[in-house]
Design goal:
The protein is α/β, with parallel strands linked by helices. The chain is built from 22 helices and 29 strands.
C-alpha cells in the first residue's frame, strides 16, 4: 500500500501491441501531465515504465494509462509493483532494450488517420500530396518490420535518412511523429514513379495525375501498395474490366472496388451502421455490401451474377490521392495471376504482372512481408472471410498457455498458426497451396513469424489429407527438425477454431459444412455432425455418401455431382429429359455413368459443398465453375431478396441410423426438386426451398443429437456458412429449438481458420 503524501516508485510492465503505436510519447505526456519523474522504454518483450510520486498521483497515472491509450495500442496486460523512490529529477524516454528470447506483439498496418489525411490535402502543408505520409497513429508496420524491437534500423525504412525537419519531429516526445519509424517527407522519403511494361520511366511532374489520366483512358495499372502490388482499372469501364479478367485469368470471380468516401459508397450500396463502422475502422477491410445494381454505374462485369460488392475505402495516402484525382470508383484487386501470391517487389512485378498491367505506379520503399487485403461480411456481427491487412499478425488470445506449435493449415485459403504462451499467431492469408510460388511464400512467412515472436516449434500439426501441399511440407520438414508430428482431422479443426475464438471449452454439437475434408475412414467428408471439444471428437452424423465422379473434375464441373446424386439416389435409369442437364454430351454422360457404376476414380463423399453444387447444376444455374464455390454462390444469389420466414417451405428428407451413425437421406429431396422443375416452379423459389431444407436438416439432426447427449450449444464452421441466407436460416431454426449458436467472427469459417483449430487440438493431444 502506498501511503498518501509518501513518495513511491511504481515499476510498470505493459504487454500487448504497444510498440510503433505512439505508446512511449503517450506515457511521456501522461507523466508530464501528472508531474511524475522517471522513464519509459521499449524492450523485446514489453514496454517498461518507472515513475515516482505520491499515492493519489500514481493511481491517477495508472488509471489514465489504461483509459487513454493511443488508438492503435492494444493492451493485453499491465503489471505494477511498488518500491522505494530512486530520486529521478525528470521524465525521459530511454533507448530500446534488446532481450534474448523475448518477443513483442507487432502492430498490423493501419489505415491513414484523419490528421495525415488533412496534411496531404492541405496546399500549405509540407506533406501536401505526399503519398507516404504517416505518423504513430497510422501507416505501415508489419509489412516493413524485419525484427524487434520495432526501431527504424530494423525496418525497410533504414535506407532513408531523415531530413532535419523529420528528425526534429521524430525526436520530439510531444509530436505525434515521435519515433514513428516510417516517418518521411518529400525531401527525404520514398518516391513514386510510373513506368511502362519494359520499365521505361514515363516523364511526369505528377505521377498520380499521370496515373489518373491513364486509368480514365481505360488502361490497367499495377500499383505498389502496402503489402504488394494491386491491379487497378476504372470500375465503370466494362471493356477495361474484361481485359483485366482476360489477362489475369480470372473469368468470373468478383473483383474488389475502392471508393473515395463513404458517401460515394452509399450511392452504389446499402450500408448498415455496423458495415459503416467496419469500413471506417483502423483496419479498413474490404466489406461485402448489398449492391444497388439498378442505380449504380459500376460495371456488372465487376461481380457477375452477384448482388454483393466487395468495397473498401482508401487506406494509404497514395490511394486517397489517386481516388480523389480520378474521381472514379476503381477496381483494386490483388497483383497476381490466379492462384499465385501477390507480387511485392518492383522487378518481380515487372516479370509476373508484365502481361497484365499496361503501366506500373511504383515506389522505392521495400516491402518485407506480403499482405493481401482483408475481407469481411456483416451478418449480425462482423465475420472474417479473409484475415490479412489490418488484423494479422495480431494474435488470437488463448484461454490457456500453449506449447510452441506450428500448425500448417489446409490446401485452399491457407494460413498457418504458431502458438506460444497465451498467443495464437494466425498468419495473414497465404493463398491456395497449389504451386511452388505459394509454398515459398508460406515457408518465408513462417520463418518471419518464428523470428518476430521468438518461437521454436516443438510440435507440428497438419491436415490428414495426404495430397495437401501443407501436409507434405509437414511430413518432410517435421522429421528434419525433429518435431513431433500430429495429424488433425479437417472438420474437428474447423469446429475447434470456432470454439477457441469464442472461449468455449466444453463439448458442443459441431456442424462442419464445407467442400472437402479428408475423413478418418478415407472418404471425403464435408456434411458433418460432430460431438467435439478442444481435445477430441466423435462423428455422430453426416449427409449420405454419393460418389465424387472424376475427383477434382467433379468440383470444377458441378453437373457431374448432379448426375452422381440423380443416378445414385433415383436409379441409373433415371430419365434426364426436360432438365437442363439433358443437353450434356452423350459420350461424357456415358463415361460418367461408367465411373459411377464401377466406382472408377469416384471416392464417396458426404460434402455439403458438393450438394449445393449438384442442386445448382440441376437447376441450370451453374454447370461449370471458374472459382471455388461459384455454383453455390450463384444459387444463393437467385433466392428472393426478401424472405417471408412464416411462409417458408422445405423439401422432404429423412434421417436414418446406419451402423450406429445418423445419416441424412436425400432421395426425397431430389425427387421433389425434379418434380418442382417439371411443374415449372420458379428457380428462385426452388433455391429458397432448398436452402430452408438444409437449415431444417441441421436443426432436426442437432435435436436428435441433443436427445442423445443433452448438449444445447451448436458450433457452425466450414466455408458453406459464408452463405448469408443459409447462416440466417440455420441460426433461426436452431434458436427456435432452444440451442445457443456459436459462429466465427475473429477468424474465417472457411479453411483460413483451420490452422488455429489444428494448433489447439495438437496442444491437447501432446499433454
Amino acid at each position: 500500500m502506498v501511503l498518501a503524501g509518501v513518495k513511491k516508485l511504481a515499476k510498470v510492465s505493459v504487454r500487448g501491441v504497444v510498440q510503433g503505436v505512439g505508446f512511449r510519447p503517450f506515457v511521456y505526456r501522461l507523466a508530464h501531465e501528472h508531474n511524475l519523474m522517471g522513464w519509459v522504454r521499449n524492450t523485446s518483450g514489453n514496454v517498461e515504465i518507472e515513475v515516482e510520486g505520491d499515492k493519489e498521483t500514481l493511481e491517477n497515472f495508472l488509471s489514465d494509462l489504461k483509459a487513454k491509450t493511443p488508438p492503435m495500442a492494444r493492451i493485453e496486460k499491465i503489471e505494477t509493483t511498488f518500491h522505494s523512490p530512486k530520486g529521478y529529477v525528470k521524465f525521459q524516454i530511454w533507448e530500446s532494450l534488446s532481450q534474448e528470447g523475448k518477443y513483442q506483439l507487432v502492430s498490423p498496418d493501419i489505415a491513414t488517420c484523419e490528421d495525415c489525411q488533412k496534411e496531404i490535402l492541405s496546399p500549405t502543408d509540407r506533406r501536401f500530396h505526399y503519398p507516404f505520409t504517416n505518423c504513430t497513429n497510422c501507416g505501415p508496420r508489419f509489412t516493413i518490420i524485419e525484427d524487434i524491437p520495432y526501431d527504424r534500423p530494423k525496418t525497410t525504412m533504414h535506407k532513408f535518412q531523415m531530413c532535419p525537419d523529420c528528425q526534429q519531429e521524430y525526436e520530439d516526445p510531444l509530436d505525434r511523429r515521435f519515433h514513428a519509424q516510417p516517418n518521411a517527407c518529400p525531401k527525404c522519403g520514398p518516391r513514386l514513379e510510373i513506368v511502362d511494361g519494359d520499365s521505361n520511366p514515363i516523364k511526369s511532374d505528377d505521377a498520380i495525375k499521370t496515373a489518373s489520366e491513364l486509368l480514365k483512358a481505360g488502361k490497367i495499372l499495377a500499383l505498389r501498395g502496402l503489402g504488394g502490388f494491386q491491379l487497378v482499372c476504372d470500375a465503370t469501364n466494362e471493356e477495361a474490366i474484361n481485359l483485366l479478367r482476360s489477362r489475369k485469368r480470372r473469368p468470373s470471380k468478383p473483383l474488389a472496388i475502392m471508393m473515395v468516401t463513404l458517401k460515394e459508397i452509399e450511392k452504389h450500396c446499402l450500408v448498415s451502421a455496423e458495415e459503416r463502422k467496419l469500413l471506417q475502422s483502423l483496419e479498413c477491410p474490404i466489406v461485402l455490401l448489398k449492391w444497388k445494381r439498378s442505380s449504380s454505374n459500376i460495371s456488372p462485369a465487376v461481380a457477375p451474377n452477384l448482388r454483393y460488392l466487395g468495397v473498401m475505402l482508401p487506406y494509404t495516402p497514395l490511394h486517397h490521392l489517386l481516388l480523389k484525382e480520378t474521381g472514379l470508383p476503381l477496381v483494386m484487386t490483388s497483383g497476381n495471376l490466379s492462384e499465385e501470391p501477390i507480387a511485392k517487389d518492383n522487378d518481380e512485378a515487372l516479370v509476373r504482372l508484365g502481361g497484365i498491367a499496361d503501366y506500373f505506379l511504383r515506389h522505392n520503399r521495400d516491402i518485407f512481408a506480403r499482405y493481401d487485403d482483408s475481407v469481411y461480411m456483416v451478418e449480425g456481427i462482423p465475420q472474417a472471410i479473409r484475415r490479412a491487412r489490418g488484423y494479422a499478425p495480431y494474435p488470437i488470445f488463448l484461454p490457456f498457455r500453449a506449447k510452441q506449435i506450428l500448425a500448417c493449415g489446409a490446401e485452399l485459403k491457407n494460413t498457418f498458426c504458431l502458438t506460444k504462451d497465451a498467443h495464437a499467431f494466425l498468419s495473414q492469408h497465404i493463398g491456395d497451396m497449389e504451386n511452388e510460388e505459394t509454398l515459398e511464400h508460406f515457408e518465408n512467412t513462417i520463418e518471419l513469424y518464428k523470428k518476430l515472436f521468438r518461437i521454436e516449434p516443438e510440435i507440428m500439426a497438419y491436415d490428414m489429407h495426404p495430397e495437401y501441399l501443407a501436409t507434405k511440407y509437414a511430413l518432410q520438414v517435421g522429421p528434419e527438425q525433429d518435431l513431433s508430428l500430429i495429424p488433425v482431422q479437417h472438420h474437428h479443426a474447423h469446429i475447434v477454431s470456432c470454439l477457441v475464438e469464442n472461449g468455449v471449452e466444453e463439448p458442443v454439437i459441431g456442424v462442419a459444412f464445407d467442400g472437402t475434408g479428408y475423413g478418418t475412414d478415407g472418404t471425403i467428408w464435408g456434411g458433418e455432425f460432430l460431438v467435439a471439444d478442444w481435445r477430441s471428437f466423435q462423428r455422430v452424423g453426416h449427409l449420405e455418401y454419393v460418389p465424387l465422379p472424376g475427383g477434382a473434375a467433379a468440383i470444377k464441373k458441378p453437373y457431374r455431382m448432379t448426375l452422381s446424386y440423380l443416378y445414385t439416389l433415383l436409379g441409373e435409369d433415371f430419365a434426364l429429359e426436360g432438365l437442363p442437364i439433358s443437353k450434356l454430351d452423350s459420350t461424357e454422360l456415358e463415361v460418367i455413368k461408367q465411373q459411377l457404376k464401377r466406382g472408377i476414380n469416384s471416392l464417396p463423399t458426404s460434402s455439403a459443398g458438393r450438394l449445393f453444387d449438384a442442386v445448382s447444376a440441376l437447376l441450370g444455374v451453374r454447370e461449370e465453375i471458374d472459382y471455388e464455390a461459384q455454383a453455390a454462390i450463384e444459387l444463393e444469389m437467385l433466392t428472393p431478396n426478401e424472405v417471408d420466414k412464416p411462409k417458408l417451405k422445405a423439401y422432404p428428407f429423412s434421417i436414418a441410423k446406419h451402423q450406429g451413425m445418423r445419416v441424412v437421406r436425400l432421395t426425397e429431396l431430389f425427387s421433389a426438386i425434379v418434380q418442382d422443375m417439371k411443374n415449372q416452379t420458379s428457380i428462385p423459389i426452388i433455391s429458397l426451398k432448398f436452402h430452408n431444407t438444409v437449415a431444417q436438416i441441421i436443426a432436426r439432426m442437432c435435436k436428435l443429437i441433443d436427445e442423445d447427449t443433452g448438449l444445447t450449444k451448436v458450433a457452425l464452421s466450414g466455408g458453406v456458412f459464408q452463405n448469408r441466407l443459409l447462416l440466417k436460416l440455420v441460426t433461426s431454426a436452431l434458436q427456435k429449438e432452444g440451442f445457443s449458436v456459436i459462429t466465427h467472427h475473429l477468424v474465417p469459417c472457411n479453411d483460413g481458420g483451420i490452422s488455429l483449430g489444428q494448433a489447439v487440438v495438437a496442444h491437447f493431444a501432446s499433454i
